[in-house]
Amino acid sequence: MIFFRRKEKPVKKAAKEAEKQYRKISDMLSKGKFEEAYNESIEVYKSLKSFPQSEIDECPEAINCILSYLYRLCALARLLKKFDECINWGSEYFNEIKRVYAKRGLSESEIAKRLRENDITWTVWFNMALANFMKGNYVEALNLISEYLGRSKKIDVPDAIIERFRGNVRLVTRFIAEQQLTRFLIASFMAELIPEEHKELVLIIDKGLAENLLKEAIEIASNKEKLEKVFEKYVEAGIPKEAAEADILAVKMLGKTMPKSS
Known about the structure:
262 residues; single chain; 14 helices; 2 domains
């Protein structure tokens, strides 16, 4: 009996090659070759998207690769200070993932719930928020962070975030507090309470707390007059005062963790 091996579809073959390239690009990043990694990622992404959408939809490997590359491109664009491109890649990520969920028959509310439960999506929102912040789009930046933090005093932390920190409650709590600090800082810049030249420090806030920014946030949180101006910016962005009050508690908590010599 003769067996014929089924020929692999071109789109699946391209997806497998893209996965190999993804690992090679990770090696570039470990060596600090960010611009090169960014350009290579764009080429691979374009290659994948050159296939008809109908063929991509029938290949889970291609869909996963496309989402992975969009996530990486959004993050790299922010790192390279290509803020417009960061926003565009992030928007494309959401267009793609929403389309995938919609094809599975999920409603808009179900899609929104899935997005908020995804830790990768949190990161895309965060990168887009910082890119908008650097462009002076403060309201958009506040709203993007609020997509995952929510707009109430209580923040629901999805399992994916808890798993990212292997269930370490202290690390999870600190991570959420740092996200709240970022939202508070954006509102403070919007209220013109922090000098413009300090904006660059916000870009690296996820790489380690910028102590000068934290000090400024604590000072603002302790000043009733300044705090009222910050509250106004939260409300202007459609974020209730109770969310702002929760962010202030997070700022003060982070302040207690600062080295005493600071």
